[in-house]
Design a protein that fits this description.
Layout lengths: L3 E5 L8 H14 L3 E5 L3 E6 L2 E6 L8 E4 L4 H9 L4 E2 L2 H7 L2 H8 L9 E3 L12 E5 L8 E4 L2 H11 L4 E5 L6 E8 L2 E9 L13 E4 L4 H13 L4 E9 L2 E8 L5 H5 L5 H13 L2
Parallel strand pairs: 1-2, 1-5, 5-6
Antiparallel strand pairs: 3-4, 7-10, 8-9, 8-10, 11-12, 11-14, 12-13, 14-15
Length: about 280
């Protein structure tokens, strides 16, 4: 076996060291060669009419790669070279664009009314307060509450040149629910909450507790999982008027809540990858 690449942005390695160590432990236990690779060490393009990826240190391409970054083009390049990526390029392309995610999953789960903004609007399409989001942001970054015209325009200015979308503010800000999906299986469900911010992300100061989905909510998650070929992903919901509303899918999903709940997901994730490689 040539092994696996665990691919990160260079600036993300230090703060994700705990998770990287879990991968190294799990790979060692299974006798699987694993290399931590940062995107800046990869040269990609077309050579003699065919796609090419070169590691600048000369490492041969792996059997599969775990993509812990938002680079749909790089992910598709691996796939065109016959290297399976987890998550794959369709997940990376759709789920890292909130507009495409809502468009793709509309009808599978209830969701908040959403306007895809042009970027030159001077006022909100909904009554205030509203939430203005970057199309490609993650981890609660580039998500703004706007209470009036000036704060709405300031949010758009902060997001440019990225695209943006606007939604009404939920009546339960500071709380959301994440279902962790491994393959087609729901492995954990957690509610995140914050007492001081309308964003509930742990890196924005929130905390988390286990949550139980109702049968209909579990069906929404399973239907979303069927719409994609996930390795590991997070399906997020906000709370509004006493029910869950779909919010987004996290591709390179954070795992702090899993470890806080006592679940080390990496051995199961590695087993899923190895099983899929055996079937090729």
């Amino acid at each position: 076996m040539k092994g696996l690449w665990l691919v990160y942005e260079p600036g993300e390695v230090a703060r994700n060291r705990f998770f990287i160590d879990r991968w190294e432990d799990a790979a060692r236990a299974r006798g699987v060669p694993l290399w931590l690779v940062t995107a800046d060490r990869l040269q990609t393009g077309i050579e003699d009419g065919a796609p090419v990826i070169r590691h600048l240190d000369g490492h041969p391409l792996p059997d599969a790669c775990v993509m812990r970054l938002n680079r749909p083009l790089l992910t598709e390049q691996f796939e065109r070279l016959g290297v399976p990526a987890f998550n794959g390029s369709r997940v990376a392309r759709v789920c890292n664009d909130k507009r495409l995610t809502h468009l793709t999953l509309s009808g599978l789960a209830p969701m908040m009314d959403t306007v895809f903004l042009q970027g030159d609007e001077t006022d909100s399409p909904f009554p205030y307060p509203v939430v203005v989001k970057s199309a490609h942001g993650s981890g609660g970054r580039q998500v703004y509450r706007a209470d009036d015209g000036p704060s709405f325009r300031a949010a758009l200015a902060a997001i440019r040149p990225d695209g943006a979308l606007a939604q009404p503010m939920s009546d339960t800000p500071g709380k959301d629910v994440r279902a962790y999906v491994l393959g087609k299986e729901i492995v954990r469900v957690m509610m995140r909450r914050s007492d001081h911010d309308f964003r509930s992300n742990l890196n924005q100061g929130g905390d988390a507790v286990p949550w139980t989905l109702r049968a209909v909510e579990e069906k929404w998650v399973r239907d979303i999982a069927e719409a994609f070929d996930f390795g590991l992903a997070g399906v997020d919901f906000i709370l509004h008027r006493g029910q869950l509303l779909f919010n987004e899918v996290e591709d390179a999903v954070g795992t702090r809540m899993l470890y806080a709940s006592g679940y080390d997901v990496v051995p199961d994730y590695l087993a899923l990858i190895l099983k899929r490689l055996e079937k090729r």
